[in-house]
Amino acid sequence: MTDVHPIDPRNVQLTEDGKLRHFLSIGGLSKEILEEILDTADSFVNIGEKSVKKVPLLRGKTVVNLFFENSTRTRSTFELAAQRLSADVLNLDISKSATAKGETLMDTLQNLEAMGSDMFVIRHADSGAQHFIASQVTPDVAIINAGDGRHAHPTQAMLDMYTIRKHKGDFSKLKVAIVGDILHSRVARSQVQALNILGAEEVRLIGPKTLLPDNLAELGAKLYTRMEDGLKDVDVVIMLRLQKERMDGALLPSEGEFYRLYGLTSEKLNYARPDAIVMHPGPINRGVEIESVVADGPQSLILNQVSYGIAIRMAVMSMTVSGQMQQKNQQDQNNEEASA
Amino acid sequence: MTDVHPIDPRNVQLTEDGKLRHFLSIGGLSKEILEEILDTADSFVNIGEKSVKKVPLLRGKTVVNLFFENSTRTRSTFELAAQRLSADVLNLDISKSATAKGETLMDTLQNLEAMGSDMFVIRHADSGAQHFIASQVTPDVAIINAGDGRHAHPTQAMLDMYTIRKHKGDFSKLKVAIVGDILHSRVARSQVQALNILGAEEVRLIGPKTLLPDNLAELGAKLYTRMEDGLKDVDVVIMLRLQKERMDGALLPSEGEFYRLYGLTSEKLNYARPDAIVMHPGPINRGVEIESVVADGPQSLILNQVSYGIAIRMAVMSMTVSGQMQQKNQQDQNNEEASA
Amino acid sequence: MTDVHPIDPRNVQLTEDGKLRHFLSIGGLSKEILEEILDTADSFVNIGEKSVKKVPLLRGKTVVNLFFENSTRTRSTFELAAQRLSADVLNLDISKSATAKGETLMDTLQNLEAMGSDMFVIRHADSGAQHFIASQVTPDVAIINAGDGRHAHPTQAMLDMYTIRKHKGDFSKLKVAIVGDILHSRVARSQVQALNILGAEEVRLIGPKTLLPDNLAELGAKLYTRMEDGLKDVDVVIMLRLQKERMDGALLPSEGEFYRLYGLTSEKLNYARPDAIVMHPGPINRGVEIESVVADGPQSLILNQVSYGIAIRMAVMSMTVSGQMQQKNQQDQNNEEASA
Q1: Which of B142, C266, C290, C334 has a CA that sits 20 to 30 A from residue B160's CA?
Q2: Which CATH architecture group holds C9-152+307-339?
């Protein structure tokens, strides 16, 4: 898990007119784009409750799920989102070994492009892999980042923003705490960026000193090592999943010790505001990160997050395809004018 | 393979108005409901022969195949049935280990519910698992039992009933023999229940004494250990599949010995009525349970059963979704009246 | 990998009226049929560039991908082709061991037929397996050969023919060279047949003596062991993939030695005509069969081949279903007349 590719998200993600064209990371996107994503998701949230949960926006489009890292859960949410947009979906299991060399990966992708794919939904263990791919593909394909290394998991961050806006409203009045293994979390990084762009009053990171990276503080977050201090008066508590498989050494005490210090019990939740909401990206480890009575309690929005996640994925899928088509039409027109 | 959950099928399977809402087991269903399933299947049998094998009844619905026990064959029939009803299908491979605790299983299911799933088709090694799940899910999801432990395999039983009714007519005049490893068969249990509810004249179970359970006799079946006696004058012979993987010890002699005593040869078939039909749930073990000349002969309906199986699955899928929507509308209306 | 089934392709592939009914091998097909396939593919090539890449030709049809040999890439092209024809697709992973006996394989297939399948797309390690299956199935199923043993890979050959015709025109004026491991290539065999049927001026096979089979020369091809001689003045260079997994012994020197002698470098490409086109079935081994500068160069049509491959598969799928329906109607009519 290394940062193999230098990342310049600004130019790649947007069309010349500033429309979303790939969705790779929160960094480099404006408040207006993020709010457009949230507004678009709003229109899809209701679809999940209708008897026919389908709109024809991506009819005849081919969405390829390219998961270099296995994640049935995340893949399923993208598959459902694509189906509800009426797209055709191709799930490809790509072992990382088969594409050890960047060149071979590009051959694989160019082949999929040549088959007429319109979108790649990519999860990859290397930070920046999706940016690299996005910088290489033809104008016909949109790239959605479904998680890359420790770098970003932008659709998760946006569904969290959606949850916060829907249940707490105006970001400028909100204190938000993110709790747990910040260091290894691609979600936390994306969340801090999104909260700052959307103008949250205060973003706090809570965890053991060994799992609190400095560079997130630079992005605009306060660091806390004690729940008592960090949760004080917050409006939103976002618990992270313990990424056991991502930990290399002895950065962490035992699970029991972690729970005692950072597990969200109803007792610790009392430090927050009485109307604070509780979120978690799932799947939850009951009794490790969170007490069951909190996970299932009235302040928990954990299952709502799942529902909103489908809507957010439908939003970025439809927006990037629309941006990509607009860009292509623009280029075709430019070519015609140039040759006229 | 233990019976972990107490089962009370009566209330869970039906709406307040007595419509099918989940399809979990034959037990607890009335003759009217079983006949409605058979009649509904009738309307779907013809679809398989049309050039466009599709109806829009489940358009925009999401069907999730949750197979905790692997069975490509059964899963495929449900997948095809769902596709022909125009549903979107999500196949999930769920290793049993990942859901060892009931609580974790419920988290998984609640997540799938939150994604807007309309139906879970579930196969599980634990008897009663589907009943437990059905008692826990929200009003938005219908549960179909695709086989649980030794308990039930109700869609298989109903396709068998469909086959019998289509080819032999009135159940009240029929003697039916079920042959083989009755003890380990979830199909046999469901078949005996269905035949009795539909009013079969006589239900017989034939097998070695070690594989004949007492409790099925209580449900209304005669026990036989010799084919000569059990097959005498029957109208229908249903062979069971030898569930080798389900046998724990030395309940059975050799395969050759089993075939000699209970394999359906053309010679043994002569004990039955000349116009008796031969059925088998498949896949068949030629030369173990059945002689090839019988399996492929004019009395065999083994392949017809497969075709009818798609229609039966379409029937219970469309009926449960319809029942579930009706129940939900009723509840919404009740809520409105309560709050008015 | 043995030739278990004797092959008589002529009768099985065509209806009584000479329409395509299965697509098993190039052998036995007329120039007219091959040209009809190419013309039909022409109408589908443009679909891949439209915003809605879908036609309703196979709506309500069920296509089953039966890959006894794993090939994600080939399966994906058939899956996409089926989706763009609006068919429902069922992917089955069939381990070869589960169907060791031909009889058991036939039971599996008859079950899939009984489920209302309209088409089997089959890849199998045994030469002739698809012919055997096609000779056994009911009139309701069309068989497409997606590669069998060393025998044939006819959709690959046809997409190559499409590429040649689209970029070089009239076959009668073309010299075509096929380079590499001819002996183990099912593609080469199909290509030689197709080129001869379509009237190519000259077909050449280039490779080390140990990898040049005599029987292809009998089909109408000249054998060369030196690139300098074989590539001289050709219009088309088709590189084969090194089938390392197919080689039994020491037929081949090292990879480096192979590349030195038969790898397509820009230097060696100079022997061909200056406007020669370069093709490869993919996936390419850069630096083993072909130099990167050639693979990515202006004469290379490797990615075009992938696009055309979807169109060719859509063509044979729609033509065989149409042929199969016509045959069935004819038979129904004959039966009615016979009984009238």
Answers
A1: B142
A2: 3-Layer(aba) Sandwich (3.40)
B74 labeled part of a ligand binding site: yes
> What one-character DSSP code corresponds to residue C210?
G
Closest residue in C to A56 (Cα) is C52
Contact A307 B103 (CB under 8 A): no
Fold category of B154-302 in CATH = Rossmann fold (3.40.50)
CATH class of A154-304: alpha beta
Mean pLDDT of A143-150: 88
Q: Which residues pair with C205 in a beta bridge?
A: C178, C223
Beta-sheet pairing, A142-148 with C277-279: unpaired
Binding site as annotated, residues of C: 73-74, 101, 123, 153, 156, 186, 241, 282-283
Whether the complex's predicted ipTM surpasses the cut of 0.85: yes
Q: Residue C157's Cα: distance from chain center in Å?
A: 4
Which stretches in chain B have pLDDT values below 50? 1-7, 9, 96-103
Q: Which CATH superfamily is domain B9-152+307-323 in?
A: Aspartate/ornithine carbamoyltransferase (3.40.50.1370)
Is C64's pLDDT higher than 50?
A: yes
Residue-wise pLDDT tens digits, B155-205? 999 999 999 999 999 999 999 999 999 988 889 999 999 999 999 999 999
Compare C155 and C285 and report the one with higher pLDDT.
C155
What residue of B is the nearest CA neighbor of A48?
B116
* Alpha helices in chain A, H assignment, sequence order: 9-13, 31-45, 72-84, 102-114, 129-136, 154-168, 186-197, 214-220, 227-230, 255-262, 266-269, 292-295, 302-339
Residue holding tokens 């994640």?
A71
**Chain A contacts of B108, Cβ < 8 Å?**
283
Residue of C nearest to B53 (CA): C60
Whether A156 has a binding-site annotation, put simply, is: yes
Distance CA B121, CA B128 (A): 14
Interface of A with B in 52-91 (CB under 8 A): 52-54, 72-73, 76-77, 79-80, 83-84
Question: What percent of chain A is modeled with pLDDT above 70?
Answer: 91
Q: Is the pLDDT of residue A60 over 70?
A: yes
Architecture of domain C154-303: 3-Layer(aba) Sandwich (3.40)
B304 contacts in C (CB within 8 Å)?
A: 114
From chain C, the residues in CB contact with B306 under 8 A are 111, 114-115
Which pLDDT value is given to residue B291?
95
Which chain C residue has its CA at the smallest distance from A108's CA?
C283
Domain regions of chain C by residue span:
9-152+307-339, 154-303
- How many helices (H) and strands (E) in chain C? 13, 9
Name the residue facing B307 among C90, C107, C115 (closest C-beta).
C115
Considering A35-39, A112-116, A242-246, A325-329, the range whose residues carry the highest mean pLDDT is: A35-39
Tokens 């329409």 appear where? C19
Residue B220's Cβ-side half-sphere holds a number of Cα atoms within 13 Å equal to: 17
What is the nearest CA distance from A142 to chain C, expressed in angstroms?
14
Residue B254 CA to chain centroid, in angstroms? 28
Specify whether domain A9-151+307-327 bears CATH 3.40.50.1370. yes
Of B98-112, B282-296, C68-82, C270-284, the range with the lowest mean pLDDT is: B98-112
A321 touches C: beta carbon within 8 Å: no
> Which chain B residues touch C116 with a CB distance below 8 Å?
48-49, 53, 80, 84, 307, 310
Mutation target vs C (from A94, A107, A110, A328; most C CBs, 10 A cutoff):
A107
Question: A92-129: per-residue pLDDT in tens?
Answer: 877 644 544 344 778 889 999 999 999 999 998 888 88
Pair A29, A148: CB distance under 8 Å: no
Give me the pLDDT at residue C183, please. Answer: 87
Q: Which of C44, C46, C51 best probes binding to A when mutated, by most A CB atoms within 10 angstroms? A: C51
